[in-house]
Write a structure and sequence with these properties.
Strand content: 5-15%
Radius of gyration: 39 Å
Low-confidence stretches: 6-17
CATH architecture of the domain at 58-266: 3-Layer(aba) Sandwich
Structural class: alpha/beta
Order of helices and strands: HHHEHEEHEEHEHEHHHHH
CATH topology of the domain at 58-266: Rossmann fold
CATH superfamily of the domain at 58-266: P-loop containing nucleotide triphosphate hydrolases
Number of helices: 12
Helix content: 55-70%
Shape: elongated
Distance between the termini: 30 Å
Amino acid sequence: MSGKVRQKTAANVAESVTLSLNERILKECHTLYTEPDNGLIQIAASVGLSLLAPRKKISVLLIGNHSAGKSSFINWYVEEHVQKTGVAIETQGFTFVTSGRKRESLTGNATLHLYPHFEPLRNIEGIVDYLTTEISTSKQKKFSLVTFIDTPGLVDGDMKYPFDVNKAILWLGDIADLVFVFFDPIGQALCKRTLALVEKLNEKHAERMRFYLSKADEAGHEGDRQRVMMQIVQELCKRPGLNRTGFDMPTIYIPNPSGKPSRCMNQIEDVCKDIEKTINQTVQNTLNTLERDCVKIAELIDAKLNLDSTDRSYNMRASVKGVLFYLIGSLLPLLLLINVLASNASSETLRSVLGANGTDALLLYLVTPVQGFWQIVPNAWRLYALGVLAIVTIFLLILAKMSTRKRPTLSRRQKRDLTENREYVRNYVKTKKQTLYQEYLQQSVAEHDL
C-alpha cells in the first residue's frame, strides 16, 4: 500500500485551505475516484465494476416562460451580471453558469469538454451551437458549489427553436439536482409548453421540483397576487401528473437595490436555503456512496482472489489426472513394443544389455503376461485386438490432453496489485471517508456531542 498513497503537493494544500468544508469534501471525494494511478474508477475497472465519479457541484435547472426572471435570479445569486436580462427573449440557448478562477465565456464544444457528463447533448441535433458557459469568480452565497443551467424562455405559438428544446430540457432534468420552475405573474405564466414540460418532469422527479411565483412584487396588490397564484395552481392541478395536495409556490422577487421596501412577502432567501440543503444532502450522499463503493470493490477483489485460489487447485488436480491418463495411454503400446522387441531378441542380447536380473524381471513381469494374454486371443481376432488397443490408446491420450486444460490464473504481480488495492480501499480510502464525515458533522454538531 505504500505506493498507493501520495503526499499532497504544497499547491494542493494551499488550495484546500481556501475551499469551504463542503467544497473540499466533494473535491477530495471526486479525486479519490479519478486519480490516474490509483483512483477508485481504475481499481473498480480491474475487477469488472464500472463506477462514475461524483460531481463536485450540484446542478440547478431553471425553466419557465420568457422574461420569468430566471437570468435575473442567477445574477442576483452570483452577485454579478453574468446573464442578459430584459423583456425580450434574451436566452436563446442553454447557458451553464459556474464558478472558476477567472471570468470567461465558453462555446458549445468547450462546454461539453468542461462537463463530460453532458456529452449526450450532442445527440440532439443543432444544440451544440446554442450551448455556452459563463465562468464567474464570485464567491457569494454557495455559488462555488452550484452550477446553474439557464434554459431558453418558453413561448407558445409560432416560435421555433433551432433544436428540440423539449427533449433537451427533459434530458437535463434527469441529471439536475434541483429543477426551479419560475412563473411570471405578468407574462405568459400559463404557457402551454411550460406546463407540458413541468408535467413530464414532475412524473419522474417530483422530489426535485420547486415552483416559484417570480417577480411577485410586480403582480399588483395582495389580492391580485393571490388570484394569479390561484389561477396558476388550478391550471397545474388540472394536469394528472401535477394533481397533488399541499402545492407550495413561494413568492419571490429580486430585492430592490435602493432598499425600497415592498409589501409583498419575499421568500427568495428560502430558495438559497433550499440550495444549501441540497448541497448538504449531496455531501452526505457522496460520502455514503464512497463507503458503499469501497465495500463493493473489496468484496470483488476478495472474490477474484478466492476464484484464483480455486482455479489453481483445479489446475493442480487437472495436471495430476492428465499425467495419469497419459501414462496409462502410453503404457499399453509400450508394453506391446517391448514384448515384440523382447520376442525377437535373443537371450544373450537381452542379458548383455539388461543383465541377468534385468532380463529375468523383463520376461517375468512384462513379456510373459503379454504373451499369455496374446495367446488367449484367437489368431483371427488379433488384428481387431490391435485396433481396439489403438483406439483405447488414442482415447486415453485425448482424455489426458483434455484433462490438462487449465483455467487462467493471476500472475504474482496481478495478485500483489489486487492485494494492495484491497488494503488501499479498506484502510486509506475508508479512513479518509470517516475523517471527512467527522469534519462534516462537526460543522453542525458540537464537538463534545460526537
